[in-house]
């Protein structure tokens, strides 16, 4: 099952560590990361007791490398850490070391250090079991990514996807949550359960889970047997405690080191799981059943009864409260009731509030503060985040309010950032998982809905899955919030849907949630105005009136913005826009946030109904943008010719099969010279053998005309703004904001040369670095050896190689050898015969103390000279 949220972290770090007990899927995650790596991969499966020499030899390092990496005292020397290049490093190689815990101590230390070496060493991913000797803290401090057992655990919603995909059978409704609780989300246990279900389909999944025999042998062999004797005895002696704390274990066993034992079992061996409070630990139910079976075998019935009596007397009968006991009370109402009241826009109905204010007795409580923050957020008040932060500061001992407040804080941050902002997946995953553990399933479902806002395929369908769950459970409120998440997902993808928003508004109205209905009506009005529906102006005015009567100024500001989008009069539109900004400011809603949401909702691509041709007043089909009534402007254009051809207009790709091959080639030539005038003689020479006759001139004009019609079908004849004619020349127009990689590359090279000539090395280096970012490969490789492209291709290749070697020389002169080596290797990738690049690479490796890499560079330089029939250079010493 793809786990992109975890594997993508490794692509942005110098090294990665996957540390978890057996059975959590470390090897599977490493394999996914290896498959996603664009470069070569070296996989090393550790053998018990293997030393440093075997490790280095297996990874392709010279056998004498330990002398270079380890000082005379045997301690690892401090080496410059490789910076994050985002592409697997210059060498492009990924090293995976699985089961590192089997290596000798010295080899383990060396394996960890390999991930911190300077370029051009590869990326390193390590899989290992937890141990007291593993320096996890120092690995994290070195900017490495550490994935632990909690991150690897499968959640209930992931398990529901996993079983049909892996085992070909669906889980029974409602069994995913108890299955994850019983197994701790451990991959191996889930696999064993799947095998047991497949082996005996008539037994029933609930019965197989209740029996628990499918995983006992595995737990005994892989989890309990490897534990040190004292930890195994301690775990067995305390297994009758459902929740383990240092005080309870000390009272039961008399061990003064109970706190240290619990910490070791949780963080060094991964057998226990720490609760959110950091002081309470729990064992998986199936593991606890194994331990209790051990204890039953070791004690007589009388001793066992006496032990249970001691536990009951010491806890006062409160050792294992039902999960619902974590729910706190606010006055006489459950937490969900005031939340429903606030969402419905009537917060005064629950205890603790009078006349729209929290009473003094409840004003300081974390729950009351959180309710205030939610109410402020729903009205559009920009200060809601401050109130939520105060609630979180007060909720140190209230898990429910703390998790709810954290989710509200994330929601506010996501909405404030808008569709262009990031979605904090790790925090949402943790909130969803902790809420599920505390039996707050409605809160877990709410967190899961937001996971669908991102690009990860495994999360894309979460809002729909949650909607189906809520429908099955009869949770109308949860279903309405899930529909809201579906709408947000469509906006995040740039395709706000009219049908989805109409469904959300219908559900809000049925529940009596006037506040959210006001927001839904306003958002729907913006989308309808963007698509120029016949009654868009009237619908926007109705949305504004509803938001005003509901007392939701933020939604009213959005509705006024919809009125501005819908009106065809420019003066009236400007007046309405100013009214929208003024309303937002009076509601303490950031104007920039309102602008971003208006832009996102007014995206011209809509759901199928809107995008395929709703019309205004029965006229022709239109998908006009909010700026359709303003002066027309050139469409957004992106042209890429380096490394391949890409031509997108206003984010839209084209079906090139509808265009003749000669017209396509002519467009590519204009794209190479984007922004520059190309004389018709040059075009005739390239595509009509240079023959200038009335016939060839006519063919050229017809080809240009077909290009214009193909690229801008909506514009009238003679109204093209993309391909302009200047006398006898033609030009592909680049408007402000348009992108051409060739133009950007050439401009950066010119800036670098000018800055270097003026002795401004840092500016020159930055310009050359920018040029290399734009150089994605040779010019139009798909056009082969066509005469019109070969000369430009070779010219740009030489300029790219020259920019790379110039950057390398500047960085070497600034005593930054690692970056110099990086740039020199980039030059050699472009032009392997560039003498200056080989010399800079060797000097940079020598300066950085990378003897092995220097030796490889010298060997490569000699091979290059030999391929040209030249003797080795006498300027630099050679090992031969």
TrEMBL record:
<dbReference type="Pfam" id="PF03704">
    <property type="entry name" value="BTAD"/>
</dbReference>
<keyword id="KW-0805">Transcription regulation</keyword>
<feature type="domain" description="OmpR/PhoB-type">
    <location>
        <begin position="629"/>
        <end position="734"/>
    </location>
</feature>
<feature type="region of interest" description="Disordered">
    <location>
        <begin position="605"/>
        <end position="635"/>
    </location>
</feature>
<dbReference type="InterPro" id="IPR036388">
    <property type="entry name" value="WH-like_DNA-bd_sf"/>
</dbReference>
<dbReference type="InterPro" id="IPR011990">
    <property type="entry name" value="TPR-like_helical_dom_sf"/>
</dbReference>
<dbReference type="GO" id="GO:0000160">
    <property type="term" value="P:phosphorelay signal transduction system"/>
</dbReference>
<feature type="compositionally biased region" description="Low complexity">
    <location>
        <begin position="605"/>
        <end position="614"/>
    </location>
</feature>
<protein>
    <recommendedName>
        <fullName>OmpR/PhoB-type domain-containing protein</fullName>
    </recommendedName>
</protein>
<dbReference type="InterPro" id="IPR016032">
    <property type="entry name" value="Sig_transdc_resp-reg_C-effctor"/>
</dbReference>
<dbReference type="Pfam" id="PF25873">
    <property type="entry name" value="WHD_MalT"/>
</dbReference>
<dbReference type="InterPro" id="IPR027417">
    <property type="entry name" value="P-loop_NTPase"/>
</dbReference>
<feature type="DNA-binding region" description="OmpR/PhoB-type">
    <location>
        <begin position="629"/>
        <end position="734"/>
    </location>
</feature>
<dbReference type="GO" id="GO:0003677">
    <property type="term" value="F:DNA binding"/>
</dbReference>
<dbReference type="InterPro" id="IPR001867">
    <property type="entry name" value="OmpR/PhoB-type_DNA-bd"/>
</dbReference>
<dbReference type="InterPro" id="IPR051677">
    <property type="entry name" value="AfsR-DnrI-RedD_regulator"/>
</dbReference>
<keyword id="KW-0804">Transcription</keyword>
<comment type="similarity">
    <text>Belongs to the AfsR/DnrI/RedD regulatory family.</text>
</comment>
<dbReference type="Pfam" id="PF00486">
    <property type="entry name" value="Trans_reg_C"/>
</dbReference>
<dbReference type="InterPro" id="IPR005158">
    <property type="entry name" value="BTAD"/>
</dbReference>
<dbReference type="InterPro" id="IPR059106">
    <property type="entry name" value="WHD_MalT"/>
</dbReference>
<dbReference type="GO" id="GO:0006355">
    <property type="term" value="P:regulation of DNA-templated transcription"/>
</dbReference>
<keyword id="KW-0902">Two-component regulatory system</keyword>
<keyword id="KW-0238">DNA-binding</keyword>
């Amino acid at each position: 099952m793809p786990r992109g949220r975890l594997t993508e972290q490794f692509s942005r770090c110098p090294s990665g560590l996957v540390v978890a007990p057996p059975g959590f899927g470390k090897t599977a995650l490493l394999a996914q990361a290896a498959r996603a790596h664009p470069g070569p991969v070296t996989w090393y499966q550790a053998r018990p007791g293997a030393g440093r020499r075997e490790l280095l030899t297996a990874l392709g390092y010279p056998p004498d490398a330990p002398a270079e990496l380890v000082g005379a005292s045997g301690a690892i020397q401090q080496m410059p850490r490789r910076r994050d290049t985002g592409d697997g490093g210059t060498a492009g190689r990924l090293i995976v070391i699985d089961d590192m815990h089997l290596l000798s101590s010295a080899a383990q230390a060396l394996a960890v250090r390999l991930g911190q070496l300077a370029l051009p060493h590869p990326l390193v991913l390590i899989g290992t079991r937890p141990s007291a000797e593993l320096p996890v803290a120092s690995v994290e401090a070195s900017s490495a990514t550490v994935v632990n057992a909690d991150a690897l655990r499968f959640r209930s919603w992931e398990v529901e996807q996993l079983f049909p995909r892996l085992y070909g059978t669906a889980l029974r409704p409602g069994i995913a949550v108890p299955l994850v609780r019983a197994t701790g989300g451990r991959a191996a246990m889930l696999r064993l359960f799947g095998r047991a279900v497949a082996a005996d389909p008539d037994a029933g999944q609930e019965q197989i889970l209740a029996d628990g025999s499918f995983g006992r042998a595995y737990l005994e062999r892989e989890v309990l047997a490897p534990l040190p004797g004292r930890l195994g005895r301690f775990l067995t002696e305390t297994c009758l405690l459902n929740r383990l704390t240092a005080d309870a274990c000390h009272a039961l066993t008399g061990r003064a080191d109970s706190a240290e034992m619990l910490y070791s079992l949780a963080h060094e061996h991964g057998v226990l799981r720490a609760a959110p409070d950091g002081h309470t630990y729990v064992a998986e139910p199936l593991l606890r059943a194994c331990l209790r079976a051990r204890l039953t075998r070791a004690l007589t019935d009388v001793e066992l009864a006496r032990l249970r009596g001691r536990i009951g007397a010491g806890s006062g009968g409160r050792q294992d409260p039902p999960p619902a006991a974590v729910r706190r009370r606010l006055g006489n109402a459950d937490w969900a009731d005031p939340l429903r009241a606030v969402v419905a826009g009537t917060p005064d109905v629950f205890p603790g509030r009078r006349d729209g204010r929290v009473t003094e007795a409840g004003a300081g409580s974390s729950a009351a503060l959180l309710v205030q923050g939610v109410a402020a957020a729903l009205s559009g008040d920009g200060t809601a985040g401050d109130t939520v932060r105060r609630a979180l500061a007060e909720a140190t001992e209230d898990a429910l309010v703390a998790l709810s407040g954290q989710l509200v804080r994330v929601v506010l941050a996501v909405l404030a950032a808008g569709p262009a902002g990031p979605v904090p997946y790790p925090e949402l995953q943790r909130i969803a998982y902790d809420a599920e553990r505390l039996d707050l399933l409605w809160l877990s479902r709410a967190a899961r809905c937001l996971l669908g806002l991102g690009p990860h395929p495994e999360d894309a369908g979460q809002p729909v899955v949650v909607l189906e769950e809520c429908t099955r459970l009869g949770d109308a409120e949860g279903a309405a919030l899930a529909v809201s998440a579906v709408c947000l997902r469509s906006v995040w993808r740039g395709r706000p849907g009219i049908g989805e928003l109409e469904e959300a508004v219908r559900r809000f109205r049925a529940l009596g949630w006037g506040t959210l209905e006001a927001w839904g009506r306003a958002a729907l009005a913006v989308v309808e105005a963007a698509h120029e529906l016949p009654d868009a102006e009237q619908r926007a005015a109705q949305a504004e009136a509803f938001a005003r009567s509901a007392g939701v100024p933020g939604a009213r500001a959005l509705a006024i913005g919809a009125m501005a989008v819908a009106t065809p009069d420019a003066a009236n539109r400007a007046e309405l826009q100013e009214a929208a900004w003024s309303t937002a400011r009076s509601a303490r809603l950031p104007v920039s946030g309102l602008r971003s949401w208006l832009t996102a909702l007014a995206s011209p691509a809509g759901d199928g109904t809107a995008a395929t041709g709703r019309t205004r007043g029965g006229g022709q089909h239109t998908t006009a943008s909010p700026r359709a009534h303003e002066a027309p402007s050139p469409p957004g254009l992106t042209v890429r010719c380096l490394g391949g051809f890409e031509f997108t207009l206003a984010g839209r790709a084209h079906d090139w099969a509808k265009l003749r091959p000669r017209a396509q080639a002519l467009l590519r030539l204009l794209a190479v010279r984007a922004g520059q005038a190309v004389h018709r003689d040059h075009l005739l020479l390239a595509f009509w053998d240079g023959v200038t006759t009335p016939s060839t001139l006519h063919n050229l004009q017809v080809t240009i005309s077909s290009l214009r019609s193909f690229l801008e079908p909506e514009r009238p004849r003679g109204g093209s703004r993309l391909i302009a004619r200047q006398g006898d020349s033609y030009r592909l127009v680049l408007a402000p904001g348009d992108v051409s990689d060739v133009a950007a590359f050439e401009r950066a090279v010119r800036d670098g040369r000018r800055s270097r000539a003026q002795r401004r090395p840092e500016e020159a280096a930055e310009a050359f670095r920018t040029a290399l970012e734009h150089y994605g490969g040779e010019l139009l490789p798909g056009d082969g050896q066509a005469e019109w492209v070969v000369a430009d291709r070779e010219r740009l290749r030489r300029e790219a190689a020259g920019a790379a070697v110039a950057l390398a020389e500047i960085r070497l002169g600034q005593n930054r050898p690692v970056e110099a080596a990086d740039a020199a290797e980039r030059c050699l990738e472009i032009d392997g015969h560039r003498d200056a690049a080989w010399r800079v690479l060797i000097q940079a490796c020598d300066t950085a103390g990378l003897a092995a890499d220097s030796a490889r560079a010298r060997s490569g330089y000699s091979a290059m000279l030999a391929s040209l029939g030249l003797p080795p250079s006498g300027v630099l010493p050679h090992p031969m």
